[in-house]
Amino acid sequence: MNEESDFEIMFGYADDDLTLFELNLKGFREDVIIYTREKKYNIHLYNPIRLKQEIDTWIEKKNYNFIIDGILLLQDDLWNEAVRVRLNQLHDEGYFK
Prior knowledge:
The chain is an alpha+beta fold. The protein has one domain (7-92). It has three helices and four strands. The protein has a four-stranded mixed sheet with strand order 1-2-3-4. The two termini are 16 Å apart.
């Protein structure tokens, strides 16, 4: 995190067409980290359809483990810029304070 900012978003995946294609196939991403002066946040973004599939699997199998360690956000568009806009909006609303 740089000295001037109290909020930084880090992406583990590249910002290219292949990555977008793969993210759309998977329906989720867990590579996003937010740093503030006080804390680090692990962000998990799921397309609502993919999350429903996970829940349906859990209901069907009963012993299926679905664990989120961090913040879970529902988001249709998993592209870096769309995620950046969403997280900046949450920051502006005071969520990460």
